[in-house]
Specification:
The structure is a single chain. This protein is an alpha/beta fold. The chain folds into 3 domains: 3-164, 3-Layer(aba) Sandwich (Rossmann fold); 169-269, 6-phosphogluconate dehydrogenase C-terminal like domain (6-phosphogluconate dehydrogenase C-terminal fold, Orthogonal Bundle), CATH 1.10.3660.10; 282-350, ACT domain (Alpha-Beta Plaits), CATH 3.30.70.260. 46% of the residues lie in helices and 18% in strands. The strands form 2 sheets. An 8-stranded mixed beta sheet has the order 3-2-1-4-5-6-7-8, sandwiched between helices. A 4-stranded antiparallel beta sheet has the order 10-11-9-12, covered by helices on one side. A hairpin with a 5-residue loop joins strand 10 (310-317) and strand 11.
Length: 351
């Protein structure tokens, strides 16, 4: 694969283009918002504008409700030899493509399971898809060569291909992506009416719960309404659980509440770690950061000198801005050594 057209230069489209550029592929960036395409091009994601002739693959990085219309437009003008998309809903767009008489042989649905709470080309990252599942949903009519192009795209972007039926995909993402985003938004919406004194008490737990609520409201309206049936089915179960919680809180016996909290423990434990990796036990090492320039960089350098493999870094800021807390997630076996060495170097580390 040498040439690609990326239609839509938001977070995902620009990230795809950046990843492909790094692997020697030439992306042509197409967007109805010319400024967005030019911004992506300025970031090194490719060339703004349509290609002079058919490209090897067109990646449709548009909302689910727009996939069928955009595919129809570009299949008619012969943009590419093969087409895929990155939308987070697969069934309804595929039905609309068929209803419009689209060429399903040259199309395969795709959905990289990666993203950020920010949107737009400036939020794009070439490494966004590294090690992340990338679902492909081929139709029976999809030509093998087209599926091969999509698999090559996933490989070039560093993703891990997963082939699913469209219905299985849509129910899965409703459970692990769409409803969690909706719940984060609903919690964040409660804060809009919250008293200032309450918000000043907010800690990292609230930030973790509401982080993804910063996503683009228009895009998420499209996603949720396109996958409405699957999302509503998950919400039905949640509504029943909420009724259980309200009944337990207002009743004499908290047993039902305890049982639900234990189910939450069990569900959380089922979330896998690194895709394709083996299960590893991690332990947080919490380090106080003073309010001065370069403090986090100095901490990471110190941890690196110890040889600690840092799986994740989380930051919690003090409300008065005088200090903060960095939580370094490291393999259980190295947590003690890292803690002792950081303390020896003068860092304040909490057990």
């Amino acid at each position: 694969m040498r040439t690609v057209a990326v239609v839509g230069t938001g977070l995902i489209g620009t990230s795809v283009a950046l990843a492909l550029t790094a692997r020697g592929v030439t992306p042509h960036l197409i967007d109805r918002d010319g400024d967005a395409a030019r911004t992506a091009a300025a970031l090194g994601a490719g060339t703004a504008g349509a290609p002079p002739g058919p490209v090897d693959l067109a990646v449709l990085a548009v909302p689910p409700g727009s996939v069928a219309g955009v595919l129809e437009e570009h299949q008619k003008n012969g943009l590419a030899r093969a087409y895929t998309d990155v939308a987070s809903v697969k069934g309804p767009p595929l039905d609309e493509i068929a209803a419009r008489g689209g060429d399903l042989g040259s199309f395969v649905g795709g959905h990289p399971m990666a993203g950020r709470e920010r949107s737009g080309p400036l939020a794009a990252r070439a490494e966004l898809f590294e090690g992340r599942p990338w679902v492909l949903t081929p139709d029976p009519a999809t030509e093998p060569a087209v599926l091969g192009r999509a698999l090559e795209l996933v490989r070039l972007c560093g993703g891990v291909p997963v082939v699913l039926d469209v219905e299985a995909h849509d129910h899965a993402v409703a459970l692990i992506s769409h409803v969690p985003h909706l719940l984060a938004t609903l919690m964040a919406a409660r804060l809009d009416d919250g008293e200032e004194v309450a918000l000043r008490l907010a800690g990292q737990g609230l930030r973790d719960v509401t982080r993804i609520a910063a996503g683009d409201a228009g895009l998420w309206t499209d996603i949720l309404t396109t996958n409405a049936e699957a999302v509503a089915a998950v919400l039905d179960g949640l509504a029943a659980d909420l009724d259980t919680v309200r009944r337990a809180l207002r009743g004499p016996d908290p047993a039902e509440l305890t049982a639900l909290l234990e189910r939450g423990n069990a569900g959380y434990a089922r979330i896998p770690g690194k895709p394709g990796g083996t299960a590893v036990a991690y332990r947080p090492v919490r380090v106080v950061l003073r309010d001065r320039a370069g403090e986090l960089a100095r901490l990471l350098l110190a941890a690196s000198a110890v040889g600690a493999n840092i799986e994740d870094v989380r930051l919690e800021h003090a409300t008065d801005g005088s200090a903060g807390l960095a939580e370094l997630l490291v393999a259980d076996g190295s947590a003690g050594t890292l803690t002792a060495e950081l303390r020896r170097r003068g860092w304040t580390v909490h057990a």
